[in-house]
Design brief:
Structural class: alpha/beta
CATH architecture of the largest domain: 3-Layer(aba) Sandwich
CATH class of the largest domain: Alpha Beta
Radius of gyration: 24 Å
Distance between the termini: 60 Å
Bound molecules: zinc ion
Number of helices: 7
Oligomer: single chain
CATH topology of the largest domain: Collagenase (Catalytic Domain)
């Protein structure tokens, strides 16, 4: 709801570099979707404190082979709720902690040495607001590629908001270390990974109780896009996507991931001795994002040729599905093969198929399934 506490809402500070003089910036009132006018946003007082520029002087995380790599400068408009600034002990402390956190986040990308550029998320402005995060989240930020909102009382839910928003809303329990604690920073690294087109890899997981085909669970190997807390590694799939995104943002889509598939996908069926089996039946049971469930009905079925291969004629992940996460309907499959009385099962997760693409875009991805 609209915050009408004018004694606070008129105190909206905005610190920008490299402007050295204080000025007052006036903006027109902003109409909400239901026609009300947010009078709280009518005036913005811009105050520039030269001393604060010192807090932005964090060194850039630099890998050893930096001289051969381009720098990917990705500009970020930072906003913080006035109440959160207060909880941090004031603006100077807040700015300093933000700067340190940015430095850590850049290190989490660059220290791995896995990227084709030096990632440099860079604060280009810092604004303090006194309305709600929901009012700030979708504000245009034409002077920066991304927006990061710190708000301990956010009303939007935390995390990455893609599309036109290109915004991360950051909130964290004080009991768990607060906004700048280790877990909060680890979580932010994950969200910045989304800003570089990495996907939620934990969404591929399956609970054993939600797999009606053979009752087995699926767990992605730990990496930052699976579980960021205390984890310092990026999956091959995420590395490929982040390298592809480089220093670009993608507000209009489609998601890069939806275009990153090998030229051909196929299933190979072998017996327990490794010998290819012809005329084996194939069924692909899909896993939709964030459902942690295998669907009971296959979306693809067929049988192997004389070489024990079944080439998929369409992409089972169904890229181009607008409205689905990362523009794909499915993110994983339980593959069942049947040859006579024998059966076999295997997972076909997006992360493995996509990693194959990044190793060679013209390659063939082969899922080998062994019968019992
Ligand atoms: Zn995520």
């Amino acid at each position: 709801m609209l915050n009408v506490n004018l004694s606070r809402t008129d105190r909206l500070f905005r610190v920008a570099r490299p402007v050295l003089s204080a000025r007052i910036e006036r903006r027109p009132s902003t109409a909400t979707s239901d026609g009300r006018v947010l009078v709280t946003r009518a005036r913005r007082f811009v105050v520039v404190l030269s001393i604060l520029s010192l807090t932005f002087a964090a060194p850039l995380a630099t890998p050893v082979n930096a001289t051969t790599l381009p720098t990917w400068a990705i500009t970020v408009n930072v906003k913080m709720a006035q109440s959160t600034v207060d909880d941090q002990g004031g603006l100077v402390y807040a700015l300093s902690r933000v700067s340190t956190q940015f430095d850590t986040i850049n290190h989490r990308f660059n220290d791995t040495g896995r990227f084709k550029g030096i990632v440099n998320f860079r604060e280009t402005s810092f604004a303090v607001y006194s309305d709600m995060a929901s009012n700030e989240k979708d504000q245009p930020h034409p002077d920066s590629q991304l927006q990061l909102i710190y708000d301990e009382n956010q009303d939007t839910g935390g995390g990455w908001f893609g599309g036109a928003s290109q915004t991360i809303v950051h909130d964290w329990d004080v009991a768990d270390g607060g906004l700048f604690g280790p877990n909060a920073t680890d979580g932010l690294v994950h969200e910045f990974g989304h800003s570089r087109e990495a996907t939620d890899e934990y969404a591929l997981n399956v609970d054993a109780t939600k797999n009606p085909i053979d009752g087995k669970a699926y767990q992605e190997p730990y990496s930052i896009m699976v579980y960021p807390y205390g984890v310092r590694t990026w999956s091959d799939y995420s590395v490929g996507l982040i390298n592809q995104a480089a220093d670009k943002v993608n507000p209009a889509g489609p998601a890069l991931a939806s275009g990153d598939f090998p030229a051909q996908l196929q299933v190979k069926v072998v017996n327990s001795d490794g010998r290819p089996l012809s005329k084996a039946k194939i069924a692909l049971y899909p896993v939709a994002w964030f459902t942690y469930s295998v669907a009971p009905t296959p979306t693809v079925s067929g049988s192997t040729n004389g070489a024990g291969l079944y080439k998929l004629s369409t992409n089972p992940f169904q890229p181009g599905s607008k409205g689905s996460p990362w523009d794909m309907k499915y993110c994983n499959f339980r593959v069942k093969v049947t040859s006579g009385a024998k059966t076999g099962y295997a997972w076909m997760p997006l992360t493995q198929v996509g990693a194959k693409y990044f190793s060679n875009p013209n390659s063939t991805y082969t899922l080998t399934v062994r019968t019992g």
